[in-house]
Design a protein that fits this description.
This protein is mainly alpha-helical. It contains 5 helices and no strands. Helices cover 67% and strands 0% of the residues. The radius of gyration is 22 Å and the shape is extended.
Length: 128
């Protein structure tokens, strides 16, 4: 999979250098992000109302809270305060994992996949 990504990336860079993308319609215009073709018709109205009310789904709200807590913990010098926040972080992570439809064990692999691929890219290859 990584080889295909590298090939695609190099072809895109070549196209940019050749000016292939210079005369595209809509160049310099903002993207239209309100396309809801992928949302099931019965959910479109509800999603639109939630979007206008600036409401996040519970999972996204929890993810946002977890990220904020992680950033805050990085700057805490006090070990006791860090331990207390770590307990809160563990609780929020457990709560988020219980809300998901997919087991967190299945998602765990995807977290480390990019790190493994990066390490493999750094290994010396035969013939170089």
């Amino acid at each position: 999979m990584l080889a295909f990504q590298k090939i695609a990336e190099s072809r895109i860079l070549e196209a940019i250098q050749d000016g292939v993308f210079d005369n595209l319609t809509g160049k310099g215009q903002p993207l239209e992000l309100s396309d809801d073709r992928d949302i099931p018709p019965e959910l479109r109205l509800a999603y639109k109302i939630l979007k206008m009310a600036d409401c996040l789904p519970p999972e996204l709200h929890l993810q946002k809270e977890i990220l904020t807590l992680q950033e805050m913990m990085a700057g805490l010098p006090d070990e006791a305060a860090k331990l207390q926040q770590m307990r809160r972080l563990n609780f929020l992570t457990m709560k988020l994992n219980m809300m998901r439809r997919v087991s967190p064990l299945l998602q765990e692999h995807s977290e480390y996949q990019m790190k493994i691929l990066e390490k493999l890219d750094r290994l010396p290859r035969a013939g170089k």
